[in-house]
């Protein structure tokens, strides 16, 4: 097990290095590179720009600059926001709670509902229900998240007035219930696509497991259908779902950005869009790298979890 | 007799395979539904603007915010009194073109990278596949928006950016296929007979992976249309006055209470187009999968 974890960790670190290379390339792709912000200020002369470039070490060879950036990045020095001069990491952590709240609650919905729909689809294969679930999932995958959010706001906020149309809490009322009330619509909207994917994968994972020898053995030794289903089939079908949860993370974060925009939710996605509007390069890069690390970590945890519950994986 | 049948089968193997595939596709109800839908949408987008009495840029201040079915405005008008139907069809041209062009480009990139990675394996393959993995670590919208913000956003750039951020899946599929095909006898035979790497890659291996590539490409159109919609909705994609399904929704939220059709109609168009490509992709996957005959 230790060897397995070390191996996965090494793999993740390699990816982190490559991710940083891509990030650094994009940073330098920006017209004018890191200097662009200074070039905009009035009365700036080329001589002054050169001076700043020298002070920032931009006239050194690119590989040296990259190493410098990467080492300070590793120790948590991600630069300062152009907007208010605060360190990028603390700006990001200020928006982290909202996004985590949204992502976790929508994951709970999608895992619960998706597993249920998938299990029902696999046990009643080719039934009318299975067909509706299949077609429904494909349509759900095709609906733009932001549009689903707009329709939800129109129906449930503007027409029915059941839920607030945005923000994380009402000013003056920050109780648990108030948060929950605000959380319902964005998390359901964000969950839509994941429910569709989750139910499809759960269905096919169930069908894979049902066809295996140990299920036939369980049936042959006289266990009831229910017991075989829940003790043997569902449990084993859930193993690949752990990997799927890791793989789905980037998609979930992309969805969160759009959902946060529609519902004025103060998370990482909104921070990112605001920073784009202000050309706040350090924060843009910071969020980009942060999300990539978040995804890497999520996948690493998923891999280790799978290896813990399923010893067969470790042998490969 | 049996030998003769076999002979005929091997001679017409390709046609035989194709007709079987075609038959499976035609029998796939969803796929045909998708095909009919997308052809319908395509025809509407091409012909629609000529049939409507309004140009998409005509501003009719007196008729602003007309709900659908007022006079000749079958889908109503927007905040400047422009005909929504005319804009929707023109936007459809843009969105579908961007989707298809991005698909072609990203499939090309993905296929070449997957082919090279799968065929050469070892260091080249590992490096390319790890690069693919690391691109997959970034949430796609974040990467797209960063690039869109740094570059000049026009239809061509958006297409390019979508392609650059969505080739990874095809690359993974192709490299996995190639890795399993590489060990097969016909490749060994080709190598022994002195075929060059390029010949083996493009004449022997690539034709055998065309099925999964076509399926992935169809699904990529669906994804590309969605991505264009996301980026344009957020204001970093196709810029007005050129309409796209995404940017039509860009300021629909502020008129949601007074003019909900401005938000609802373009969204239905996006969903319908994306659903059709997903249906077609699903049908192609089933049709190209020989195992599905057994079921």
Automatic annotation (TrEMBL), chain A:
Tell me which UniProt keywords the record has, alphabetically. Cell membrane, Membrane, Transmembrane, Transmembrane helix, Transport
The UniProt entry, under InterPro entries, shows: BPD_transp_1_N, MetI-like, MetI-like_sf
In the record, the note on similarity to other proteins reads: Belongs to the binding-protein-dependent transport system permease family.
Give the highest taxon in the source lineage. Answer: Bacteria
Membrane topology classification: Multi-pass membrane protein
Stretches that traverse the bilayer? 12-30, 96-119, 131-156, 176-198, 237-263, 283-306
GO cellular component entries: plasma membrane
Q: How is this protein named in the record?
A: Oligopeptide transport system permease protein OppB
Mind listing the GO biological process terms from this record? transmembrane transport
Q: Which residues form the ABC transmembrane type-1 domain?
A: 96-306
The listed locations are: Cell membrane
Q: Name the Pfam families for this protein.
A: BPD_transp_1, BPD_transp_1_N
TrEMBL record, chain B:
Keyword tags = Cell membrane, Membrane, Peptide transport, Protein transport, Transmembrane, Transmembrane helix, Transport
Q: Which residue windows are transmembrane per the record?
A: 30-52, 96-120, 127-150, 156-174, 213-238, 258-281
Q: Indicate how the chain sits in the lipid bilayer.
A: Multi-pass membrane protein
For the keyword Ribosomal protein, the answer is: no
The question of whether Protein transport is a record keyword is answered with yes
Ranges for domain ABC transmembrane type-1 come to: 92-281
**GO terms for biological process, alphabetical:** peptide transport; protein transport; transmembrane transport
Naming one, the record's GO cellular component terms include: plasma membrane
Q: Which domain of life is it from?
A: Bacteria
Location(s), subcellular = Cell membrane
What Pfam families does this protein map onto?
Answer: BPD_transp_1, OppC_N
- Family per record: Belongs to the binding-protein-dependent transport system permease family.
Q: Report the protein name in the record.
A: Oligopeptide transport system permease protein OppC
Q: Which organism is it from?
A: Salipiger mucosus DSM 16094
Query: What lineage, starting at the top, does this entry show?
Result: Bacteria, Pseudomonadati, Pseudomonadota, Alphaproteobacteria, Rhodobacterales
